[in-house]
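Worked example 3 (structure in, sequence out).
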């Protein structure tokens, strides 16, 4: 959906009105299909997959930031993030906890069973900063920006993934969070400087 809306905008900027209209129409149709397939009416958020009712932070935050979610759904998705206990001082956990049988055997072997669900990924925190801004949650955004900035200053770089309880880089028997992690650093730089 985001790619289709971006292509429509690109065509419009190039003056290709017919192509822009076609891409915009395709994007709108895709948005309707995504809403039908993934919006959980009872939970008030976008499900992780069509077969799972788990809340995934990245999908919900991207829907808010990129405008797939209208204002009402954007607010509901952020309220669900709080209601489900996924916020940490450094940003959201990646998702609700997966059932043990769905956790990667490799992550369990490495001693980091929460790598894909419980960890705090700073690129997700960047999306959260933008989602909080879009929904008018300035005080929460300011607290998160300060906490993430403090983490970056203490570490000297943006790492891959962090422990939700301590804010320290995630590590286990056979794993240590990669640092610096360019993807997170770039997204945080963009998000934090938008507020200036």
């Amino acid at each position: 959906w985001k790619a289709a809306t971006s292509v429509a905008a690109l065509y419009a900027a190039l003056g290709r009105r017919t192509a822009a209209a076609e891409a915009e129409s395709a994007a709108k149709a895709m948005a309707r299909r995504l809403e039908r397939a993934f919006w959980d009416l009872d939970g008030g958020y976008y499900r992780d997959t069509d077969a799972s009712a788990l809340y995934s932070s990245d999908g919900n935050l991207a829907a808010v930031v990129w405008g797939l979610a209208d204002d009402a759904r954007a607010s509901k998705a952020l309220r669900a993030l709080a209601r489900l206990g996924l916020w940490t001082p450094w940003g959201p956990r990646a998702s609700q906890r997966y059932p043990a049988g769905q956790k990667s055997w490799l992550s369990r072997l490495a001693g980091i069973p929460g790598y894909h669900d419980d960890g705090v990924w700073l690129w997700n925190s960047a999306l959260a900063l933008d989602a909080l801004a879009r929904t008018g949650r300035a005080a929460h955004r300011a607290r998160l920006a300060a906490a993430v900035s403090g983490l970056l200053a203490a570490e000297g770089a943006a790492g891959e993934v962090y422990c939700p309880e301590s804010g320290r880089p995630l590590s286990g028997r056979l794993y240590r969070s990669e640092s610096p992690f360019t993807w997170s650093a770039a997204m945080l730089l963009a998000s934090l400087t938008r507020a200036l």
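Notes: Helices lie at 2-13, 17-38, 57-66, 71-83, 105-110, 122-134, 138-155, 182-194. The radius of gyration is 18 Å.
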